[in-house]
Amino acid sequence: MVNNLKTYTVLTLLVLGLVFLGIGCTGNENGESSQAGEASSDAAPETRTSAAGSQSITLKGSDTVLPLAQAEAEEFMLENSDKSITVTGGGSGVGITALIDGEVNIATASREIKAEEIETAQANGINPVETTIAYDGISVVVNPENPVSELTFDQLRGIYNGTISNWKDVGGEDLKIVVISRDSSSGTYEYFKEEVLQGDEYRPDALTQPATGGIVGEVSQNPNAIGYIGVAYLDDSVKALNLDAGNGSEAPTSENILSGAYPLSRALYFYTNGEPSGLTKEFTDFVLSETGQSLVSEVGYFPVER
């Protein structure tokens, strides 16, 4: 009887030991899977699929592209209720940096990516691919009460580099010019500096705004102010000036922008890591489709000829 009891005791301990050993192995396997899952979520973003089966991608960048990207995303999601597109602004430079850091699927930009940004991207294993999604014109705007209706490029350059500081020097009243600019993270800031200032620096007393809407607000409230914005932001609260770059005075109309007659015309871009794929490609194709390009016109930009 005692021997039998000892046998049962040994067997019981062996069984319990195997049970605890199995629990320990299971815990290690789960721990490794959890860590792998966390690591993959920190990698460059792919199309995300939630537990409910919905897919999502993220766009970030140009405030000029922002109203267009938002309109495109809203329409796309109406047609695809199981898919989600998140769109934020912050400036072209901010979006491109986010793409380089693997934080977004699409960087939106109102300027071409710089050579040094491409080098940084490639060092991070990112291959920026450019897609033109629309065209835009930069409107130079003043308060509607300002009698000035046109400027030459030399006059505009002088206003923004600081050599011209009074409206009387460009045909206006004897009043100090209040210069408004986007901040340095903006693609519009970079484009304007390259095309208008042509190597000069912005005047040090220029008032910078982090978003285009801020420029519209400042100019609409200050009769002495001047600023520059994408044509999609034009409304009755500001007045767009005609510009003369040496070939005659031109207004920022759709015909002049598409023909290149208006001197401040440019393309708007999506940048992706490699050729678009998955939901990123699906959304890009939608933006370039007949429906997507009709939204380009509705928002106030100009479609890509295909």
Give the overall average pLDDT. 86
Q: Which structural class fits the helix and strand makeup? A: alpha/beta
Say what the CATH topology of the largest domain is.
D-Maltodextrin-Binding Protein, domain 2
Number of domains: 2
For the CA atoms, what is the radius of gyration?
Answer: 28 Å
| Content of β-strand | 15-25%
CATH architecture of the largest domain: 3-Layer(aba) Sandwich
Q: Could you state the CATH homologous superfamily of the largest domain?
A: Periplasmic binding protein-like II
Number of helices: 10
Question: What's the overall geometry?
Answer: globular
Determine the N-to-C terminus distance: 94 Å
Low-confidence stretches: 1-44
Largest sheet report? 10 strands, mixed
Spell the H/E element sequence: HEEHEHEHEEHEHEHEEEEHEHH
The CATH class of the largest domain is identified as Alpha Beta
Number of beta strands: 13
Task: Write up this protein.
Strand 7 (178-182), helix 6 and strand 8 (207-209) form a beta-alpha-beta unit. Helix content is 42%, strand content 22%. The chain is globular. Strands 1, 2, 3, 4, 5, 7, 8, 9, 10 and 13 form a ten-stranded mixed sheet that branches. Strands 6-11-12 form a three-stranded mixed sheet. It has helices at residues 2-41, 66-79, 92-100, 115-123, 153-161, 187-197, 212-221, 254-259, 278-288, 290-299, and strands at 48-49, 55-61, 83-88, 106-109, 128-142, 150-152, 178-182, 207-209, 225-230, 239-240, 242-244, 249-250, 265-273. The protein folds into two domains: 55-135 and 267-299, Periplasmic binding protein-like II (D-Maltodextrin-Binding Protein, domain 2), CATH 3.40.190; 136-265, D-Maltodextrin-Binding Protein, domain 2. The protein starts with a helix and ends in a 7-residue tail after the last helix. Residues 1-44 have low confidence and may be disordered. Helix 2 packs across helix 10 and helix 9 (278-288) crosses helix 10 (290-299). It is α/β, with parallel strands linked by helices and 306 residues long.
